[in-house]
Amino acid sequence: MNRILTALQPSGILHIGNLFGAIEPMVGLQSDENENLLFAVDYHAITVPQKPAELRRNILFATATYLAVGIDPTKTILFQQSRVSEHTELAWILNCIAHMGELERMTQFKDKSQGNDLSVSVGLFDYPVLMASDILLYDTNVVPVGADQKQHVELARDLAERFNNRFGETFVVPTPQIRKEGARIMGLDDPEKKMSKSATSEKNYISIMDDEATVLKKIKSAVTDSQSTIMYDEKRKGLANLLTIYSLVTNTHVNQIASEYEGKGYGDFKVGLAEAISDYLTPLQEKIKGYLANEDELINILDQGAQRAKAIASKKMEVVRQKIGVQL
Ligand code: ATP
Ligand code: LTN
Predict the structure, then answer these.
(1) Which positions in this protein are listed as binding L-tryptophan (predicted)?
(2) Per-residue pLDDT for 299 more than 90?
């Protein structure tokens, strides 16, 4: 049996990069041969300031979205990180074997702390260690993530190996799984950087909840180039990104889409793309709203998930405590 695990921050909006890079791959991996875990990492979210009422809403929204996309809570253990206290307990122990130097090298920290801002939280610096504990606690084999998270999964591997060398075989060394298409959807306003919800402009991303008019406006303003043919060419980064999105929402190969636009220009292409995105998102949005209308049911699903996760995590922590010598 393969244990597959991933997690997302419940921080406000989810964009189509999160959807195709992280959530959808988890749906495809649900099967009787795998044991899957998916959770909202609320303790990661608070590494930057959060308003309590919003955080609560975002946890429910994230859960509703996973269910709407096709996560089946009978096949996937669906829960909320903060409900399984073993995550933070193991993070402390891993903190004591992690090196300052390896955390300082993490590009996400460097990006988010903007170099040397000393007022960022200690939690933001320590974020990858909590992520390593999320993964190692469950003897995870495979971690599907977008390309930006590969470095964090590699830290989890290093910490697993270091712990195993020091205290004897304890943790499974996990493998990151980076999907080829969709692993890195780029920003609409800047195709050099990944689409990101913390981007300064809303024109950077398509939110899962954007309505038709907003999608059209954002796609129309997406950065492309001055050439006139629609074809897939990695060097034409803006267009390549839009074709990738088109391909993901229609489940059609990029070359086929390009051939449908032979002789046509960016104007037609962008209108077609915006329509295809909305056709994909509208039914999803209806489903999300349906789940959100029944909050008790969502909370009930999360409760059950937490119980199942806790059963695995608490056993693992007993082993870890024994290995390090604190279990009397
Ligand atoms: P932020 O930019 O604020 O860090 P984010 O949009 O990157 O947020 P995360 O919560 O960090 O979102 O990421 C959730 C998951 O979505 C991760 O697995 C990440 O790799 C994936 N992901 C994020 N952005 C993209 C993207 N542009 N393309 C593909 N996958 C992405
Ligand atoms: N850092 C990840 C979220 C995350 C995660 C994890 C992903 C926290 N813990 C464990 C995979 C496995 C991100 O998406 N930004």
Answers:
(1) 134
(2) yes
